[in-house]
């Protein structure tokens, strides 16, 4: 076993990461904690049982596939690594996954032993409309590692635990109040903006729709009636959510169920 572990935000990043000269073991975090059921105790069996059931249903996958892609990797977080690097981005999808990983590490490891580092880009030099690490090559990933990597400490773990507590409580008013009152974010520079996007998407409007549903409906009503076009239009303005096409399909499915769109 290597002394270093890299936790990547997705398979798109893995392709380029494998071409870098960075040492260490690698796992890909293949969860979508920004969608579906969550609870504060991420180390509990019920947490992962509920996740497996929801993922299998929402993405038409199987519990066996979930166990292979997600559950089997969780024990890696408890291995005696001396250094753990978290590669996550600025959007809601990545920030909630990042919170989950940090909270898990705080439960499964002696934080005085491994150095836990965060590589979290919100942009990249020379790239307009930066969409994420999946579009970077090996040299660019190494540039991030060399230039923006920060070591997390007790203040970061405290902020992460607080944010996770408010997020999993599913009390939007309490979360919104905390976001307005909390002025200290340690090294988690993109967390507040991402959680504000969560508050925004959770607010139900006069049509009985949340922000994402209404945005997708507006795109559909503008004359874009095929999924690829809807995805692209959504991504142009709503990158803060970090949603892939399969996640957008969840919201399109709700609009379909309400007979507001004629698309599957």
How would you sum up this structure, described in words?
The protein folds into two domains: 4-166, Dna Topoisomerase Vi A Subunit, Chain: A, domain 2; 211-257. The model has no long low-confidence stretch (mean pLDDT 94). It starts with a strand and ends in a 7-residue tail after the last helix. Helices cover 50% and strands 8% of the residues. The protein contains eleven helices and five strands.
Write a concise synopsis of the structure shown.
By secondary structure, the protein is α/β, with parallel strands linked by helices. It has two domains: 4-166, Dna Topoisomerase Vi A Subunit, Chain: A, domain 2, CATH 3.40.1360.10; 211-257. It is built from eleven helices and five strands; from the N terminus they run βαβααβαβαβαααααα.
Could you describe the largest sheet, including whether it forms a barrel? 5 strands, mixed
Number of helices: 11
Strand-residue fraction? 5-15%
CATH architecture descriptor of the largest domain: 3-Layer(aba) Sandwich
**In sequence order, what are the helices and strands, one letter per element?**
EHEHHEHEHEHHHHHH
- In CATH, the topology of the largest domain is named Dna Topoisomerase Vi A Subunit, Chain: A, domain 2
CATH class of the largest domain: Alpha Beta
Helices, strands, pairings?
Layout: E1 4-8, H1 11-17, E2 25-28, H2 45-58, H3 63-74, E3 83-87, H4 92-108, E4 115-119, H5 138-147, E5 150-151, H6 154-169, H7 172-181, H8 191-202, H9 211-221, H10 227-237, H11 245-257
Parallel strand pairs: 1-2, 1-3, 3-4
Antiparallel strand pairs: 4-5
């Amino acid at each position: 076993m290597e002394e270093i572990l890299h936790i990547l935000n997705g398979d798109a990043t893995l392709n380029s990461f494998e071409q870098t000269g960075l040492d260490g073991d690698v796992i890909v975090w293949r969860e979508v904690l920004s969608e579906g059921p969550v609870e504060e105790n991420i180390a509990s069996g019920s947490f992962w049982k509920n996740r497996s059931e929801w993922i299998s249903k929402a993405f038409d996958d199987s519990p066996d596939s979930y166990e292979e892609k997600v559950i089997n990797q969780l024990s890696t977080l408890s291995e005696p690594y001396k250094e753990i690097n978290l590669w996550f981005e600025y959007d809601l999808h990545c920030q909630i996954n990042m919170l989950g990983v940090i909270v898990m590490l705080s439960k499964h490891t002696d934080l005085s032993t491994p150095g836990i580092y965060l590589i979290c880009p919100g942009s990249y030099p020379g790239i307009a409309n930066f969409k994420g690490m999946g579009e970077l090559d090996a040299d660019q990933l190494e540039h991030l590692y060399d230039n923006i990597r920060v070591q997390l400490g007790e203040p970061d773990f405290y902020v992460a635990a607080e944010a996770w507590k408010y997020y999993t409580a599913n009390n939007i008013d309490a979360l919104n109040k905390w976001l307005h009152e909390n002025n200290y974010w340690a090294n988690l520079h993109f967390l507040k903006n991402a959680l504000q996007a969560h508050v925004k998407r959770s607010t139900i409007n006069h049509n009985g729709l949340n922000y994402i549903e209404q945005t997708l409906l507006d795109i559909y009503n503008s004359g874009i009636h095929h999924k690829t076009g809807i995805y692209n239009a959504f991504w142009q303005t709503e990158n803060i959510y970090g949603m892939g096409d399969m996640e957008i399909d969840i919201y399109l499915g709700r609009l379909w169920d309400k007979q507001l769109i004629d698309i599957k």
